[in-house]
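Hey, resending since the last one bounced:
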Amino acid sequence: MRLTTDMKELMQSIGKEQAIKLYNSGWWKTKSHREVAKFQLLTRELIVPFEVFHEAVEKSLGRPIWTHEFASSNIDNILMEFFGEADPPSER
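The structure tokens again:
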């Protein structure tokens, strides 16, 4: 799969009410790190506790992730790495 250079285009909004419902449901407790990371990476609203998301991305990518990498200007790099379209930063 070839992804765009503006990966944020893949992100979808589910709306505040749905995000709150998902967050409160604890849906991530039965999912793999990769499933949690993928669903949250593709959802604009935060639908899991940030520390859960952070750990899920680290486990999925197999490397430490600095919190600044989640900033809007850097999230494309994480998305491209997650979907196999880019190497980790140290390898770029």
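The chain has a mean pLDDT of 89.

Sorry for the duplicate.
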